[in-house]
Amino acid sequence: MTSSNQTDLLNQLRNAGLRPTQQRVAIAETLFEKGHRHVSAEMVFDEMQQGSTKISLATIYNTLNQFKEVGLLRQIAIDSNKSYFDTNTGPHHHYYYENESKLVDIPQDSICVSGLPDIPEGMEIDHIDVVVRLKPIDKKS
Questions:
Q1: Contact 31, 39 (CB under 8 A)
Q2: What CA–CA distances, in Å, run from 46 to 12, 26, 42, 76?
Q3: What is the mean pLDDT of each run of 10 residues along the chain (141 residues)?
Q4: What is the CATH number of the domain that holds 88?
């Protein structure tokens, strides 16, 4: 990572109210140096194990959740056991390929969400997540 990119990353963490510790910076570099993507904590852990920085899975989970809380990541829950963190925090939806456990962006303007129920008093919609689950067509003879 270039020093300019690292300075931007340090500023991004500080602006989000996070102290840029060595572990947070290493995780942020792993997350953001490859552009927009969807990762699980286990995927980040595996990537970091292949590099020179060794960080526990628990620390990665905690850091991803901190990044989510300050708006650096978006969490997409697939089911009670699986969720992904998305580096693209702008409005968009997802395809989930069940047989590959892969999440792919759908452009925001490709889906129109209508017919929402009345929002309870004192509440507002934060965002709407649409996950379209895909599986291969079963070609039986």
A1: yes
A2: 24, 13, 6, 20
A3: 72 93 94 92 94 91 97 93 93 94 90 91 91 90 56
A4: 1.10.10.10
In a domain, 90, yes or no: yes
> Is 104 part of any domain?
yes
Structure tokens at 49: 């194990």
What is the Cα–Cα distance from 97 to 7, expressed in whole angstroms? 36
Q: 10 Å Cβ neighbour count for 48?
A: 21
DSSP letter assigned to residue 128 = -
- Count up the domains in the chain and report the number: 1
What SS3 string covers 1-52? CCHHHHHHHHHHHHHCCCCCCHHHHHHHHHHHCCCCCEECHHHHHHHHHHCC
Beta bridge partners of 79: 82
The pTM score is 0.86
Find where tokens 């708006």 sit. 71
Domain coverage including residue 113 = 3-134
> Is 140 within a domain?
no
What is the sign, positive or negative, of the torsion defined by CA atoms of 2, 63, 38, 88? negative
